[in-house]
């Protein structure tokens, strides 16, 4: 759709003097398809051209009607409504989807650019709860979307493997832990100890001093502290990687906060040399009051490091070693101030890439209306949620299609897809209230619905293969009817969906696009006989079915869902 919009914008530019780049952004889709396929509001031209918008629209209609690919152009009020030449346009879109669906989605806008995307980042020795789901799957989708758009992407898991909480973990383990018990279920048992620490500290505040003491020991290289810390990391990673495998999530780098311990001094020294560090109640900070922000703490009063220091070192590493010219952080909205401070300090250090740092914020994940808290032990294990979704998917499959081959694999794809799609269909900055009845609802605008639409298209194509050996293509003499045309127009918007999802760092744009395509295809499927039609209409509808299947499969992959061929 972008190409025809640019052609229209170029023609309008020639007659109005406005730039084609500005005009193309004005072209929209009419709310009622009876008005046309595209519409151009002419109100913004009125002042410069000193004409009534309706008159401008009428004059442009006379100019555009002779343009290639335009069937008609009509003025209605201040709008120029445009109809495209259906058979020509259908041939181009369907053939593109059949020949190279990537070309339908991508203009390779990111070629030559490298992006580091920081996502997931669970805390060591704590469970992988549903609260970490959002960062993980939003980040994975952004990685795939940007790669599709031509970017070289480095996916980074910035594990929470350092900080005062590890002093608390060590203190709790030494006070109440039992090695044999912990080894049976490391993450859950260590988490119980962490929760107990915070419960006990209510009655025994001196425990906080013990936690700080053990973290200082860890920073100073104490053998016992280091051995326990390393054990916590190894056991946690084993558990995390099982969850990532189930979700289909991958990373290029596992680089925890501790990786930057030997890289922070250089940042601190540079801040000091440039006169950016000041003392504040014994701590070393960067004063950001001139930018209406509280000071950014670089070193606490006890001399230990803090998140900001490690994030500054991590940013330099990602730019210098990984070659990233853009840094993306998929982290909850509650960290907004933290990233504003870090980005401002990078700017004050003279880092050119600071202006290409983006915090991709997202809303909280609640469970049945309540906020989750690892300190209070209020956490829902993601592993349990995924397993329950897979079990429910298998139950439905056995009920509806008991003869389906490889039911376990399909149930896994559908159950996990249900959880992912339930989250990603929501605009990312909104809060998500996690409720089993919503996640596991297999009707309506859900993951199973879009996956089933893909499987339905595959079923049609399988039946066509057994009945005939034709090669699917759109015959030039076939004129799409209104229902076919609505589906073709949806397929044509794939590139716009990708570009917007990338530009806004929002996978929900692609999730909503998939739903629109599925709605259009199911309407086509129910109203237009495919296998029973006579050629050349049969050939056209089979080609459109295969094109739709390719688009749905690609779009599902981009947001992290499998595309089962049978369900």
Automatic annotation (TrEMBL):
EC number annotated for this UniProt entry: 6.1.1.19
PANTHER family in UniProt: ARGININE--TRNA LIGASE, CYTOPLASMIC, ARGINYL-TRNA SYNTHETASE
GO terms, biological process: arginyl-tRNA aminoacylation
Similarity comment text for this entry: Belongs to the class-I aminoacyl-tRNA synthetase family.
Ranges of residues in domain Arginyl tRNA synthetase N-terminal: 2-84
InterPro entries xrefs: Arg-tRNA-ligase, Arg-tRNA-synth_N, Arg-tRNA-synth_N_sf, ArgRS_core, DALR_anticod-bd, Rossmann-like_a/b/a_fold, tRNAsynth_Ia_anticodon-bd
Keywords annotated in UniProt: Aminoacyl-tRNA synthetase, ATP-binding, Cytoplasm, Ligase, Nucleotide-binding, Protein biosynthesis
Extent of motif 'HIGH' region: 122-132
Self-association and partners: Monomer.
GO cellular component, one term: cytoplasm
Residues annotated as domain DALR anticodon binding: 450-567
GO MF term (any one): ATP binding
UniProt name for this protein: Arginine--tRNA ligase
Keyword Protein biosynthesis attributed: yes
